[in-house]
Amino acid sequence: MRLFSDRLGVLATMHQKERVMAPILERELGIKLSVLPNFNTDAFGTFTREIKRIGNQLEAARLKAEKALALTGETLGFASEGTFGPHPVLPYIACNRELVILLDQANDLELVGQSFSTETNYRQKEVETLQEAYDFALEVGFPEHGLVVMVNASSQDSGHIFKGITTPEQLTEAFNLALRESPNGKVHVETDMRALYNPTRMKNIAQATRDLIIKIQQICPTCAWPGFDIVEQKRGLPCELCHLPTELILSAIYQCKKCNFSQEVLFPNGKEKADPAQCMYCNP
To answer: Residue 57 and residue 98: Cα distance in Å, rounded?
Structure first.
């Protein structure tokens, strides 16, 4: 895109996210992506809870990008931030939400791509034996996916934290050391969710980056500014059988971040009628 072509973009990461982000951003935007050396993104929060995340997910991503730009003097920055936890609707299912942010300070532009996926190995377990630890490891994709071992899941009482475990020898050593510190004979083992130790998460970061490209390519029909995106969705798609409104999406409101032009688009999901199975009247 002409707005970004031949510019240098700075990616705020210490976990090798450039492996999946750089090919997409450089190809689609015509930029050169650079990684700031020795940039400590752990200062903005860690998955292992010893450092609390600064702000919410979007705020943390924005702060990382802003800091990278301040340190380099460049004007085009990128960062990503992930969250993991239980699915908001499906019980017993874990999910991963990834955000990738673009900050263009030269053009006063902020755009965000995202991925929401149930494809994650996010898991944790308390174990008492090395065999239990190995069994857990195999269940979560070890050694391609790394592990974290600590005495306790609490950030206040975790003792030593052993991260980036990718070999049986490292797992054995970390387990034995943690077991010696444990007051109850149990050791906490969890998946290492940092991108460089988690190929599944890396795929979701790539998907969020592709979503960012889609957002950039959505051009305002009035001023041709990128990021003509959904700001509101209206429910009320009529039931195919009784024609009463349902909770499914009827329309989406798109708005330009620059000129504020807005446009309502009916049936954004490609369906003009709702299945009666999703109607509270036909299927209470």
So the answer is: 9
Rg from Cα positions in the chain: 22
Cα separation, 278 vs 284, in Å, equals: 9
Where are the chain's structural domains?
Answer: 8-120+197-217, 124-192, 229-278
User: pLDDT for 157-176, tens place per residue?
Assistant: 556 899 999 999 999 999 99
Give the domain 124-192 fold. Dna Ligase; domain 1 (3.30.1490)
pLDDT single digits (tens) 50-90: 889 989 999 999 999 999 999 999 999 999 999 999 998 88
Residue type for position 251: S
45 and 54 Cβ atoms separated by less than 8 Å: yes
Q: Are strands 32-35 and 8-12 parallel, antiparallel or unpaired?
A: parallel
Strand order in the sheet with 262-266: 229-235, 249-255, 262-266
Q: In what order do the strands lie in the sheet with 8-12?
A: 32-35, 8-12, 76-86, 94-104, 109-117
This prediction's pTM: 0.91
